Amino acid sequence: MLPNVRRFITIYKGYERPFWVSQGLLAIATLFTLLIPLMVQTLIDQGLMQGDRDATVQSVLWMVLFAVLAAVFTIANAVYAVNFAEYTAHAVRMFLYRKIQTFAFGNLDQFPTSVLMVRMTSDVNAIKAVIQLVILSLAQAPVMFVGALVLIYLNSPSLMWILVVVMPLVVALLGVFVLKLGPLFELQQQKLDQLNQVLQESLAGVRVVKAFVQGEYENRRYDRANRQLRSAELRPMQYSAVLAPSLYLVINLAIAAILWFGGKSLLADNITVGEILAFTQYLSTILVPLVVLAVIAPQLTAAEASAQRMFEVLDAIPAVPPPATPTALHPDAVQGRIVFEQVNFAYPNRDGSTGATVLRNINLAIAPGQTVAFLGATGSGKSTLVNLIPRFYDVTAGRITIDGVDVREIPLTTLHQLVGVALQESVLFSGKVRDNVCYGKPAATEAEMVEAAQAADAHGFVAAMPEGYDAAVARRGTNFSGGQRQRLAIARAITVKPKILILDDSTSALDMATEARVQAALKQLMATTTTLFVAQRISTVITADQIFLLDAGEIVAQGTHETLLQSSPLYQDIYQSQLGGVPT
Amino acid sequence: MIKPLLRRPVKSKAGEPPSPQPPLAVLRRLLRYVTQYPWPLMGAIALLLVGTVLGLVIPYWLGAGLNILTTTPDLTLLTPLVIGIGVAALGNWLATLLQNLILNRIVQQALYQIRREVFERMQTLSLNFFDRQPIGELMSRITNDTDVVAQFFRNGLNLLVSESLKLVLIVLAMVLLNWRLAIAALAITPLMLAFLGLIGRLTSPVFTQLQEQVGELNGLLEETVSGQKVIIAYGQQQEAIATFEAVSIEARTAGIKARLLALLSRPVTLVLTNLAVALVALVGGLLTLRGQADVGVVATFLQYTRQFAIPITNIANNLDTLLGAIAAADRIFGILDERPTVLDVPQAPPLPPIQGHVQVRDVDFSYVQGRPILKHNTFTAQPGEKIGLCGPTGAGKSTIINLITRYYDLDRGEILIDGHNIATVRQDSLRQQIGIVLQEAFLFSDTVMNNLRYARLDATDDDCIAAAQQANAHDFILRLPQGYDTLLSDRGSNLSQGQRQLLTIARMMVQNPRLVILDEATSNVDTRTEQKIQEALDRLMQGRTSFVIAHRLSTIRNADRILVLKAGEIIEIGSHDELMQRQGFYYDLFLSQFKGKVPSAA
Lengths: 584, 602
What we know:
The complex is a heterodimer of chains A (584) and B (602).
Chain A: H1 3-9, H2 16-48, H3 53-100, H4 105-110, H5 113-137, H6 140-155, H7 160-204, H8 206-211, H9 215-267, H10 273-314, E1 338-348, E2 354-366, E3 371-375, H11 382-388, E4 397-402, E5 405-406, H12 412-418, E6 419-422, E7 431-432, H13 433-437, H14 446-455, H15 459-464, E8 472-473, H16 482-495, E9 500-504, H17 512-525, E10 530-535, H18 538-541, E11 546-551, E12 554-559, H19 561-567, H20 569-579
Parallel strand pairs in A: 3-10, 3-11, 6-9, 9-10
Antiparallel strand pairs in A: 1-2, 1-4, 4-5, 7-8, 11-12
Helix pairs in contact in A: 1-10, 2-3, 2-6, 2-10, 3-5, 5-10, 6-10, 7-9, 7-10, 9-10, 14-16, 14-17, 19-20
Chain B: H1 3-7, H2 23-35, H3 38-71, H4 75-124, H5 127-131, H6 135-177, H7 179-226, H8 228-233, H9 237-289, H10 295-336, E1 358-368, E2 371-381, E3 386-390, H11 397-404, E4 412-417, E5 420-421, H12 427-432, E6 434-437, H13 448-453, H14 461-470, H15 474-478, H16 497-511, E7 515-519, H17 527-541, E8 545-549, E9 561-566, E10 569-574, H18 576-582, H19 585-592
Parallel strand pairs in B: 3-8, 3-9, 6-7, 7-8
Antiparallel strand pairs in B: 1-2, 1-4, 4-5, 9-10
Helix pairs in contact in B: 2-10, 3-4, 3-6, 3-10, 4-6, 4-10, 6-7, 6-10, 7-9, 7-10, 9-10, 14-16, 16-17
């Protein structure tokens, strides 16, 4: 039962004392609450029935005292509860975040951003909510229950049987409620999701809807989902509508019974009026913790699911393990010769098994300082190929060496210093432009930063902005155009002064003229850097020292533009379709 | 395709959303969805009255019973009271149950209606509404706001109506029973209200701060997780952890403050309630000793006092839900009050079946006043001609699509198809005769066949299959697990980009329009599929007037005429050969692709 929740609780090892203290405080608060009906009893029996004014006033004063003490202890417990919950949430967030920082690309494929976001927000919140609720109310029910039983037994044992009859009824009602409602709420959520999906599609495809004039059709689709949601939402509401009155019915019928049998007992001198009244109050007070338990139960199920998802992330194994026996490689001494020997690669499946082979039999050698291009269509494997060099993924066969050293033996920090990558998606972080450009080398000088920006043809537009390099970058860099983002991302890669620079389709948003400028500047600034371009456009690769043509995971041709144009039919095809043959 | 549009600042053509309304007016409009059903509503209220009265009668009879026991204990006198309590209990149960059931139905119907109205309204709106904000934002607003309103209807409404009624009846009962004790019982009320008000005023800024902190935390989280690859590539993991930890701690602190404050309200209201009970006990006791009250009345009042505290706290706690619901409802009504900006003239005739002769005459257009996108555009296309459009990004090429299909109205000039001014015919009839293939191939999560049929609901299966064959899509469809009945997942993501593109072309063929507009996809497709797409497009354009927005000049090389746009103006018109001879802008553009590596003439 609830294995993940139980596993989760083990993180509290060493913090048991605050938990017991909080429950102790709660127990004391509950006890004081229980004593109040006792004072009502005294008020009536000793005060009013005896005409004793002092006793009357005294019992009221006790009532006040107990009420205030109960409140004080409840608040003390609440302090613990809130701290517990928030500290737990923070701890869980940090566990997850640190784990994510150990991830490699393969792990990120398994856990895309949206999934991780849900786990770090909704799941953490679900766990936090349950923790808080539990601390606030765990001790209440047993203390209340036992306490009330004891007091009733001591005061009015002849009526105790009523309690014994009522309790199971109430528990049964609540139990049915909890059991039935769970699946109904799930169904409701499902129908809501379906409705939103129709809405989403209709909005996202509004141009298609309007182009084909299908507004009526969309209305009918939505209506169907709307009707289903209406009935799915109604069902749990109707169940709740029956539950609350039914609980009150049980209590009220019990009051009638108490009056009748209490009367009989009174006549037999077994009980006093005050005790009868106190009994009715105990009955109502016992209801509260039972309802709380009924509320906690479904939340525990949600917490179990959240805990399971959390552990999925925490149990993930980093896809790229650091080298066992690292080879010391001095970054400055590296020349940048890259060799692929019989490399194969397949992406891992979600369940850990190896998927379909994406790269096959890759053999190539790149001399230091060369400008090399990888050309091919989407799915040909070119991005995957270059991602292997900085060990974003590990090969499944063969090996890759830099200056003769297998990349798997180079410490990851050194490797990432050696290999600069401008990824396919130019992601910028919110902050200043200079923070982004110097991201890989925070200690870079102003001159180094500007030099890199100039090489990436970014200095021009940055200097044109009023704040220049201190200009703010919005979240995801949305205040810059696609082309500007790409150039900033390239500048970021250049600032690190890597020995090997990889530009993965990172000039796709630039027009030909700008791209040519960037390529020329790179050639000049990074003359000794081995530069790798990955592209789909022939125009991008046309000036490279070596072009590798990829198709379906294999290198089908290599050479310069001129030799390929003569010897490779595939290259000729691509040339024809993209540039449309020879200009006259 | 029309991505540039989303990045533009506030456009005058985008229009402004209707301004917010005063809260009471919004509340009244909101309640109208419920008051539409007067008979069930009145029935519910009647049941509510009956139920509450019966609920109040029980403590009264209990008190009376206790009185009998304190004075002359006699079971026969007790019997009618006990039976009375039993009957009242059953009556209260039945009445409350029925009342809830009826109200719930009404509430669900109201929600259904609001959702339906919002959706149907949006279907009538012009494109400017959708271009005004990213779809995600619109979606999120609609779903969140509807959810808030739904919460209000489900809980808040019930609270407002029934709790208020209960309050009134309890006070009435108390005053009728013993006015002195009533004063004692109600004395605490101002204190309680003051306290609740204080809590409200204190928690509001604290909760706003919490929202901000959480917003920042989630924002940072989203940014770093989605950019994790960059963090890995630049080895900045430790720094990322340190930054995140700092923000998380701030969120923790803000959370503790806010939640503690919120949790205070319950114990304190409980204390105040108990104080009220104590006061009632004291005053009641003293009055009893003086003979102005009796045990029974005291017992009854103790119950009433407890019962009284509940509605007050419920209402106070839910007041902010009410305010939130009003704000949300206001935004929803904002959508309901929107009107389309591109309207048919009254009694507009449908566009008769066209041949495809298009005339654009001296057209000016701007989204934002003062920032013209198109200037003095004039050109003509004969039926069956292929016209290519090219030019730098932002030159206005995509806008032409919006204008020919009349998604936006022109500033100046006119567009004629077969001599009919498109502003004078019915929009639907216009769009049904124009085929558009967009850059992003959008498909619905439905079967392949239904996606094809979307173009023309009365198309037969054979029509669709024939179109698919024409579009080179038939082969890969047959290879899908269920062929034409295969269910496409969300936006058709179980197909490759190329396959999606072929399907949209096939869909176009089902529509069989005489005029085709093509916004070319930047090649994200493998060469083989690309050839198939090229072939399919060529077949599509045969015999139809087509406008092709080219991102690769090779596509429009064989166009009958090429329009070169720069900064909104057509600077060159001619065939590829003519333009190359001219050695102007087009010539430069074309050659720049070769980066100087112009091969010798073949």
